[in-house]
TrEMBL record:
Protein source organism: Eumeta variegata (Bagworm moth)
One Pfam match: HTH_animal
GIY-YIG domain segment(s): 120-204
Protein name per the record: GIY-YIG domain-containing protein
Source taxon at top rank: Eukaryota
PROSITE patterns: GIY_YIG
Cited PANTHER family: REVERSE TRANSCRIPTASE (PTHR21301), REVERSE TRANSCRIPTASE DOMAIN-CONTAINING PROTEIN (PTHR21301:SF10)
InterPro entries in UniProt: GIY-YIG_endonuc, GIY-YIG_endonuc_sf, HTH_animal
Coiled coil: none
Length: 234
């Protein structure tokens, strides 16, 4: 069947639609018309949702199926930057083109891949202690996975471990509580060396309970600059 006869949208009343279906079959048994009924004055067609207003105007908006993940392309994938931008621009243009002017603002956010805080990875984070100090850490895992490990480290049966993080060590000695649910992300970084450097900067700058060895690789130049800034803020 020629492509010109596929995927055509034609709003008709119910009786006319039934006659069209019968007409197609009477001409050739391979000619079939799909019949879909509107629901609450709305009808989807491919990636477009057509809505009939109270004035009879047909208002279109970008439609996605209920099982759609909403994800287009992860920007961290190893595709050329031009391809990533091209995909995003293509979807943005499509959203603007198919949407009625009153629906553009509702559909455009669909092209953005919002990652929840707990699902972010390759980051530097801080956890506040009731003692007033901070624990600074960095991880390539998702934040929720790293926080789960910290919680497990603070369980009594794990206190006998000889190699503990500064957080677990502080908890076992002083029994202070940590606000895991309010952990803050200080930044994200894919490069391992840069991530370590940024972690050391935060350890040196904040009132932290981290081990001294956690920031011993930081250059004395940066340490001096941080001390100067801290004194100026006192």
């Amino acid at each position: 069947m020629p492509d010109v006869l596929k995927d055509k949208f034609c709003p008709l009343d119910f009786l006319t639609s039934c006659r069209k279906r019968e007409l197609g079959t009477s001409i050739d048994k391979y000619i079939q018309f799909a019949l879909e009924l509107e629901n609450n004055n709305r009808l989807s067609f491919l990636d477009i949702l057509v809505e009939k207003s109270t004035t009879g105007e047909l208002i279109t908006s970008w439609y996605k199926k209920p099982y759609s993940s909403g994800r287009i392309l992860n920007f961290n994938y190893n595709h050329p930057p031009s391809q990533k931008l091209g995909v995003a621009q293509g979807f943005l243009n499509r959203a603007i083109r198919v949407n009625h002017e009153s629906k553009v603002n509702e559909s455009v956010p669909l092209v953005k891949d919002n990652v929840k805080k707990a699902d972010k990875s390759r980051l530097i984070y801080t956890i506040h202690c009731t003692s007033g100090k901070w624990y600074v850490g960095q991880t390539k895992q998702k934040l929720k996975a790293r926080l789960r490990q910290h919680r497990l480290d603070c369980k009594p049966e794990n206190m006998i471990k000889t190699s503990k993080t500064a957080l677990a060590d502080h908890f076992s000695e002083d029994g202070h509580a940590f606000q895991f649910d309010n952990a803050e992300i200080k930044g994200t970084e894919k490069n391992f060396m840069k991530k370590n450097f940024r972690e050391m900067i935060f350890i040196r700058a904040l009132n932290c309970l981290n081990f001294r060895t956690d920031a011993q690789s930081l250059s004395s130049i940066y340490s001096h600059l941080i001390d100067v800034v801290k004194r100026s803020l006192e």
